[in-house]
Amino acid sequence: MLYRKMPKNDDELSILGFGCMRLPMADGKIDEPRAIAQIRRAIDEGINYLDTAWPYHGGESEPLLGRALRDGYREKVKIATKLPSWLVQSREEMDRFLEAQLERLGTDCIDYYLVHTLNGPLWDKLRLHGIEDFLDRAKEDRRIRYAGFSFHGLGPDFPRIVDGYPWDFCQIQYNYLDREFQAGEAGLKYAAEKGLGVIVMEPLRGGNLALPAPPAAVAALWDEAPVRRTPVEWALRWVWNHPEVTLVLSGMNEEAHIAENIAAANAALPCSLSAAELALVERVSRTYQELMQVGCTGCGYCMPCPAGVDIPGAFDTYNKMHMFGNIQEAKFIYALRMSDKVVSRTASYASQCVSCGACLDKCPQHIAIPEMLAKVVAELEGADMEKAIAAALPIFTAKPK
Q: 25-26 and 29-30: which strand pairing?
């Protein structure tokens, strides 16, 4: 296993982190014996960073991880979990969440504590509630060691959040398709220049870049490579090739996947891909982009929408559905992102579009935004969306008892 240093504290972290959001399931719940065996095997193989969060697996991920780290395993690893920022309504609630998480995890200190799903408006709200004082005091009394945030907003908001608090690290979505999405490559470089460690999530785009049978045009390109690698290894190696990246999270729930990812992490030095290999990945990226229905880069210039539509979010989900074909997953993610009943504080559905045209002159890609939003409505909204919201509510709205 290769390791890289967290810039501000010199912790030697495995370049592969174990994400506990997609643990193995049996009979509708976590398959605990199998999940614990997988986590401990990963630690035995050298992984020393484990990531979870308050809502994962309906609140069961944190307690499961705590049990997995008994019998001497806690001392071998760094735990990362997250404050569910969308639920916080007061300064006092921040402490209640953290105390509950310490109990769930069976530890007296969380090594890497993140403010979850930050975007610009949510950061502004949390500052009014005293997030800076909370983080300062939690570090002072050793309930947490280091403070960071995971970012799920528009690119222009990322630098001001980075500059808004003396963070130790951040977590961003980054892969060879998402170089301009959310924080993007510019955010990766900005955070690194500011001395933050950078944790990368979604290196496989929710597993879609790891499909055993990728689109035929993509498979044909991988077959041209002189060095034979699986789509998973190509995607992971591309992210690890960036020296600014501290570690990459992978949500692993199959023993074969764990072995494959660990094998890749044993050889993925920064700047180790050749120019020809990088050019091949670029061709694969362009081929995937040709499968997109909307040429949206997620730049956010169209925002804010006067009607409240999350235009980049709607197009991102719509494109993923057409690139990878998972219709039910796309509907669930769309409902989660757009509903005011789950994560978002205000509804932001494509169906809220009133065709005012305010976005049209702002779009550098010259997308016919109202027309494309109508297609999003036709394919992603309806009865299935309401069912997805109902399924997500108990997972994402539970507070400490």
A: antiparallel
302 falls within a domain: no
Convert the pLDDT of each residue in 207-247 to its tens digit: 778 776 677 888 899 999 989 899 999 999 999 999 999 99
Give the integer Cα–Cα distance in Å for 304 and 299.
12
Measured distance CA(360)–CA(302) in Å, rounded:
7
**Structural tokens at position 322:** 């057409």
Q: How many angstroms separate the Cα of 167 from the Cα of each of 4, 35, 245?
A: 18, 31, 16
CB 254 within 8 A of CB 22: no
Within the chain, what is the greatest distance between any pair of CA atoms? 61
Strands 16-19 and 25-26: unpaired
Tokens 């980054």 — which residue?
Answer: 174
Shared domain for 233 and 359, answered yes or no, is no
The token pair that represents 38 in the structure block: 């997988």
Distances (CA, A) of 25 to 38, 212, 269: 12, 21, 33
Same domain? For 271 and 338 the reply is no
Task: Give the CATH number, domain containing residue 259.
Answer: 3.20.20.100
Based on the structure, what is the number of domains in the chain?
2
228: its two tokens: 């034979």
Domain limit, last residue, from 262, 282, 302: 282
Q: How far is CA 260 from CA 61, 246, 257, 266, 295, in A?
A: 23, 20, 5, 10, 33
| Residue bearing tokens 């109202």 | 370
d(CA 219, CA 217): 6
Domain boundary among 264, 282, 300: 282
> How far is residue 91's CA from residue 132's CA, in Å, rounded to a whole number?
10
**DSSP-derived 3-state class of residue 5:** strand
Query: Prior bond to 214 cis, omega within 30?
Result: no
pTM of the predicted model, to two decimals?
0.81
- Check if the beta carbon of residue 84 is closer than 8 Å to that of residue 118: no
Domain residue limits at 321: 311-396
Q: Tell me 54's DSSP state.
A: T
Q: Are residues 277 and 333 in the same domain?
A: no
pLDDT, tens only, 254-301: 999 999 999 999 999 999 999 999 999 999 999 888 877 887 767 676
